[in-house]
Amino acid sequence: MQQTHKTPSAWVSAIPLVVLTALFYGVIRCFGSDSIVGGSQIALLAASSVAALIAIVGYGTKWSELEEAIIEHIRSATSALLILLLIGAIAGTWMVSGVVPTLIYYGLDILHPSYFLIASCLICACVSLMTGSSWTTIATIGVALMGVGQAMGLPEGWVAGAIISGAYFGDKISLLSDTTVLASSTVGVPIFTHIRYMLYTTVPSIVVALIVFGIAGVTLPHASSAHVDLYAETLYNTFHISPWLLVVPLLTGLLIARRLPALITLFAAVVFACVAMIVAQPGLVAEVAGVESLTAMDTFKGVLMTCYGPTAIETGNAALNDLVSTGGMGGMLNTVWLILCAMVFGGVMTGSGMLRALTEIFLRAVRRTSAAVASTVGAGIFFDICSADQYISIILTGRLFKELYEERGLEPKLLSRAVEDSATVCSVLIPWNSCGMTQATVLGVATFTYMPYCIFNLVSPLMSILVAAIGWKIKRSK
Fold first, then answer.
1. Exposure string (b/e) for 90-123, b if CB count within 10 Å is 16 or more?
2. CB 245 within 8 A of CB 99
3. What are the helix (H) ranges across 309-353?
4. Using CA atoms in the order 90, 72, 188, 425, what is the torsion angle rounded to 10 degrees?
5. Which residues are 326's β-sheet partners?
6. Using one digit for the tens of pLDDT, what is the confidence trace for 45-76?
7. Following DSSP, what letter does each residue of 346-384 receive, concatenated?
């Protein structure tokens, strides 16, 4: 839609961001980890109202322009919202069916606390590389590893940080990754060229992360072996633990390998777990349904309740009760609500032209190659904050700097790499970004809690700037 209004200045455009920051500060101070329940949503809508008021009253923007931008932003998030709901169903069904408890049980037996963080990072990296999806990796194997780490008594922030670091590393260099394909196609770089060029920043970043996780693993306190054995015994007594239950993640992996759409794969994973639940855990299905003996309708009721609602399995251990409790699809609704409100804010900022006015600041600072990369990285993170969606951030950053890189004689693959090193990996560090909200909900760890320990995600943008500053493997295209 053609813009028919004046564009606000950068100073005026910053007002909604200042308002949003102040409101988020107040919400977090008042509600803490419960800020996602409603306070953050109100903050986003309030900041959106401020931006809309400034645009309409001060600059003659038509409401129809803002509305169209909001609708476009929400449309772009539709797939993510559906995936989020299915992840909630997976969390419930994979837990009650015994799939996750089985993975935790065997994980406690195989993994040692001293190298657990490194192992978690590498396992998630391999799974994400094969699947091309950090979200799917974190929602399946990541949840299981989270349970193992908590049972070992490791700090939840460190465990979540290792899982996220590995998942996003594998996602970045996977041919199957939608963000990798999007970044390369937006800039016009062949996918193989894009991935090979990313290795110069991605590999050093993951090496730094593994070193940090290795040091942390041998220095962090963890539970005694007796405590871990108690957890394993309690799981064994509560659930029917069997290696046959591992068929569920195996079948899910096969569907992923066949490159089926994420929605189909995740739905199939729910169906597989429901079948396993009925066969392996009939007693727990009866407990969820609130009956002593199962009939066909009670089984149907229990399965549906596991998919959509909260489940609380009594294990006899309070800490383990919290570990195996799930919220189902209903537990994701606060996150869905938050994403919708974030999309409203991003739509108003885009439709009013305020986002474009703010990005001009980055363009003015570009003089040298290192400055161009630093500006690209800064813009990627900035768009993650303002648009609250990594896909929008990738597209906006790539399009904004494409012409500038051509004018400076810089290779397009340098731009696509800088976009990935910032917009893709940093999205999970923003509490109100769709990635940050999703992973915090799935892992049960607040974004601000795991943020300092996502070593790969924190190092990647800095590594991108450092490599550009020393000029390693950077050539002029003309």
1. bbbbbbbbbbbbbbbbbbbeebebeebbbbbbbb
2. yes
3. 318-324, 333-351
4. -40
5. 311
6. 998 999 999 999 988 889 998 999 899 888 87
7. HHHHHHTTHHHHHHHHHHHT--SHHHHHHHHHHHHHHHH
